[in-house]
Amino acid sequence: MQTTSPIRVTVWNEFVHEVKNEVVKGIYPNGIHAVIAEGLKELLGENVIVNTATLEEPEHGLTEASLAETDVLLWWGHCAHGKVSDEVVDRVQERVLQGMGLIVLHSGHFSKIFKRLLGTSCALKWREAGERERLWVCSPGHAIVRGLGECIELPETEMYGEPFGIPTPDEQIFISWFEGGEVFRSGCTWRRGNGKIFYFRPGHETYPIYYNPQVRQVLANAVEWARPEGMWTNALKAPNVPVDQAPEKIVAKGASVHKAGEQGYR
Amino acid sequence: MQTTSPIRVTVWNEFVHEVKNEVVKGIYPNGIHAVIAEGLKELLGENVIVNTATLEEPEHGLTEASLAETDVLLWWGHCAHGKVSDEVVDRVQERVLQGMGLIVLHSGHFSKIFKRLLGTSCALKWREAGERERLWVCSPGHAIVRGLGECIELPETEMYGEPFGIPTPDEQIFISWFEGGEVFRSGCTWRRGNGKIFYFRPGHETYPIYYNPQVRQVLANAVEWARPEGMWTNALKAPNVPVDQAPEKIVAKGASVHKAGEQGYR
Amino acid sequence: MQTTSPIRVTVWNEFVHEVKNEVVKGIYPNGIHAVIAEGLKELLGENVIVNTATLEEPEHGLTEASLAETDVLLWWGHCAHGKVSDEVVDRVQERVLQGMGLIVLHSGHFSKIFKRLLGTSCALKWREAGERERLWVCSPGHAIVRGLGECIELPETEMYGEPFGIPTPDEQIFISWFEGGEVFRSGCTWRRGNGKIFYFRPGHETYPIYYNPQVRQVLANAVEWARPEGMWTNALKAPNVPVDQAPEKIVAKGASVHKAGEQGYR
Amino acid sequence: MQTTSPIRVTVWNEFVHEVKNEVVKGIYPNGIHAVIAEGLKELLGENVIVNTATLEEPEHGLTEASLAETDVLLWWGHCAHGKVSDEVVDRVQERVLQGMGLIVLHSGHFSKIFKRLLGTSCALKWREAGERERLWVCSPGHAIVRGLGECIELPETEMYGEPFGIPTPDEQIFISWFEGGEVFRSGCTWRRGNGKIFYFRPGHETYPIYYNPQVRQVLANAVEWARPEGMWTNALKAPNVPVDQAPEKIVAKGASVHKAGEQGYR
User: Fold this and answer.
1) Is A10 helix (H, G, I), strand (E, B) or coil?
2) Beta-carbon separation of D257 and C131 below 8 A
3) Which of A14, A136, A209, D41 would give a disulfide with A55, using CB separation of 3.0 to 4.6 Å?
């Protein structure tokens, strides 16, 4: 028997619409992050330690210290992407490259951190009409779909449609069918550096999506899937290997732009 | 018989070491860009129209107008990555996502545009010792290796070593062997949006790398490979599809955070 | 101006249902291959030389000689996959690994050659109900979608549904929406060896799919996209490199299972 | 705290050279499989249950029953690939597609099961000269490199050289440098169906490779990495979805080649 320590999760939410919009406040009175955190605790119990963080906290609640103790970060944002500081985005990116898992939710497709890590537009079509969505499982047996049937059906959702401006996913977990006639790559994974990234589409704030048991199951599964297998602590370093430390004996030849012991350019 | 119009190429170079460093000036008196441009013209003749651009030009020579007329952009930079304006990086990224090919050379692994498009550290090990390098072809028959044998041998190069902080390449074109004992993924392709990206390692400024006939052949091949097959002109748009324009007839239900006709959040 | 020689295309069809089934015979009296060939000639004119081959011909019309003169092979099969000889499958596989393009159509997902090259089940869900399909473009600007709008709509098709048992595609070109509620990865590319592979879903024999102008456009585009960029002629060879021909001077040490000059095991 | 059950491992070995060749018998008197099994038990202890199977056993020791109780299969073969029955290869492939992990070792690159799952030539260059090899870690922090430094150095190995005829790996774990001047993608992962595949190069039978502590560490890590996260039990099924069970209400239109309730063609 093997035992593993609890997964340290941080649920990040901009927490804006739940304050300003009456419909959203009615569904998520304590914020979307509170409901997501509750779902994770319910399903993962003592295998998880869940914290939350929001935009208005100092450093958005994502300090060096809090990230250093986060194994998996969930990200929900929509109308305030531009208010997230670049410094915090740099920090989250570095932590992902080292190994922290990142789960980006719904409108987080346009968050700075998602665009930063993928490098593409992350754009898509959209329509807010409360239409029916069916998320089909493309990878049966994958850790992220544990406990699901062949699809998840959501009675009322916002539509997201292709083309979705992303690099080809490493794994296609879900593809959505929409009542209005569109399709979308709703569950996708990528590895960037040593970190695992999962994008999961559902989550529009005017519908009670994060109370849905299957959606909660996916988030719990994804947290387990995304936990680091190990850390690449110096992922940003570009070390010089001096001639006398080369694995094979060599004699330096030719001219240099660097002096011995100098750092490289960045 | 099919005829195709010439490929419009821009060779971008920061053009700093060729001015400040006597060794580099001796090898590339008119700049690395001039020698690369000359090589492309020599090999591709009237199938190519080659321009150059450098850091010191207004907007680094990469205006909206010049990019709109560029099919493939080559990028050489080393000590001045930080001086490239973010606005120009945004513009180059958008053009790549639309379809422009991008060929990133040598120390350009740390350029803003390469890190922007890949989303990872792009870090590596390095040593400047004039050692021998052998670039092995991993994809015989690929457009980029046309006319080459099983490897390219360079008598004196800077060493770049793994781990190279990149997303898994779509295609592995070259892997390098170094005299000092390291290896490196020296030729890699990725597609980002509608643009093709090729990273090619050789090119340290203290060695006459861009006069090497095989290196020149690779650059000419890569220019032909990277030319756009078509354009994704609105790659950054995230259009709303109004309910009455949904492909299938639907009736709007539920609440909204957006008003009819409103733009989405970014 | 650059000129290129015509693309040599072979359209392969098992040609069984067009003979046995009255409905299919009514739509494709000379066989599906004849209609596909006609479409390619119409759109590509003198840029293409189109041949056809069928199951009943000697060696299924795919002799060493005919494959050696084929740049791109299209494959349609349905009820007679098991009648294709393994020897011919070996031959086609080798030619693809060398560089020949392969376009697999519709029920060809279960052909021996597709399963051979992908290594997975290639299984899917299906329903024959003449329902509406909409193939959404996921990669605007890609060579394969040239001339199309944002989707192709087919009024009556067979349904194919996820999960589709394939390795993650290199590029996702189309995803289908079906009237009955399913989705499917309808246009996918992979590179295997030096050959480009495109799977394209439409094509059920009881509907006049290959007369549809947009479907014909996709096939013509795919033929242009899949043409070899070069050949990897010895793709199946596993050459021994004798000690005295090693790129670096080495002295043999240790014991061997092979004698000098011996072939390796396969 | 979470507990997990032991991983059920089967180490498969053709077990031919250890019987026929004196050098190999001297190094592996009880067979390569025995030494690999011993290493796994040493490092994974009660987290693993290890069985072995060899070519000469009935059904090569890979019966339906034994595979049904295998989570991860390791495969070593060299001179007897052709003696493995196609029926057993079919069975192993199906089990991998369902979720069993597969670790292919050294000359197993030419095994039927590896070629079957990858679909390519799996060919490479080779030289048996007891030269030095250095396997560089390309993915620090990955589960497979846990406990390693930046490279593994082997004093005497057979050389394998690029081009290696494989589909682009999902993840590049190791790349080798050889004394004689070549390079090789020595550690690669792919997912096929629901199964994880890891190819690991070291292991020539005339050198005591599987006694090396770092090689043993990699195998133990890989076993933990490759264990199934869940099973896709019906991975080979291609189910019909009858019209009256379509997720959305539809009315069948048009003609059919199948009768109601009929199986599809394969």
Assistant:
1) strand
2) no
3) A14
Asked if C163 lies within 8 A of A136 by C-beta distance, the reply is yes
d(CA D152, CA D177): 10
Q: Smallest CA–CA separation between D16 and chain C, in Å?
A: 12
For the CA atoms of chain A, what is the radius of gyration?
21
Q: In this structure, what DSSP letter does residue D240 have? A: B
Q: Give Dmax over CA atoms of chain C in angstroms.
A: 72
Task: Measure CB to CB from residue A1 to each of D46, D231, D235 and give the nearest one.
Answer: D46
pLDDT tier, D256 (very low <50, low <70, confident <90, very high otherwise): confident
Rounded Cα gap, residues A36 and A42, in angstroms: 10
Per the CB < 8 A criterion, the answer to whether B71 and B228 are in contact is: yes
CB B232 within 8 A of CB B184: no
**Verdict on whether the full-model pTM lies above 0.95:** yes
What is the overall mean pLDDT for chain B?
96
The two three-digit tokens of residue B29, written as one number:
């008196």
pLDDT at residue B259, rounded to an integer: 80
Cβ–Cβ below 8 Å for A175 and C183: yes
Eight-class DSSP state of D135: E
Q: Which chains touch D (3 or more CB pairs under 8 A)?
A: A, B, C
Report the half-sphere exposure of C51 (CA within 13 A, side-chain side): 17
Cβ-defined contact of D181 to B183 (cutoff 8 Å):
no
Rounded to whole angstroms, the Cα distance separating C104 from D123 reads 25
If you ran DSSP here, which 8-state letter would residue C46 be given?
G
Structure tokens at A243: 């001639």
Non-local (6+) Cβ contacts of C90 within 8 A are none
Q: What is the mean pLDDT of residues C74-91?
A: 98
CA B247 to chain centroid: 38
Check residue D244 and report its DSSP letter. G
Q: For residues B99 and B66, what is the distance between their CA atoms, to the nearest angstrom?
A: 15
Torsion over CA: D29, D35, D38, D39 (sign) = positive
Neighbouring chains of A at 3+ CB pairs within 8 Å? B, C, D
Chain C residue with the nearest C-alpha to that of B222: C229
Cross-chain residue pair A142–D230, CB shorter than 8 Å: yes
Per-residue pLDDT tens digits for C195-230: 999 999 999 999 999 999 999 999 999 999 999 999
Q: Which of D124, D125, D247 lies closest to C181 in CB terms?
A: D247
Both ends of chain D: CA-CA distance in Å? 47
Size of interface B-D (CB pairs under 8 A): 63
What number is the ipTM of this complex? Answer: 0.96
Token reading at A127: 């329509």
* Of A200, A203, A214, nearest in space to A39 by CA: A214
Total residues found in chain C within this entry: 266
Contact D141 A46 (CB under 8 A): no
Question: Tokens 């593409």, residue?
Answer: A120
A83 shares contact with chain B (CB less than 8 Å) = no
Distance from CA of D64 to the nearest CA of B (A): 36
Residues, chain D, total? Answer: 266
Q: What residues in D contact A232, CB-CB < 8 Å?
A: 140-141
pLDDT at C1: 43
Instruction: Outline where DSSP puts E strands in C125-217.
Output: 125-137, 151-161, 171-178, 183-192, 195-200
Residue (of D66, D214, D86, D225) closest to D144 by Cα position: D225
Element (H, E) at D10: strand D7-13
Phi, psi of B95 (to 5 degrees): -65, -35
| C232 shares contact with chain B (CB less than 8 Å) | yes
C-alpha atoms less than 13 angstroms from C-alpha of C189 in its C-beta half-sphere: 21
Tokens (6 digits) for A14: 């901009």
Q: Which residues contact D203 (CB under 8 A, 6 or more apart)?
A: D32, D76, D105, D106, D107, D209, D210, D215
The span from the CA of C264 to the CA of D127, in Å, is: 10
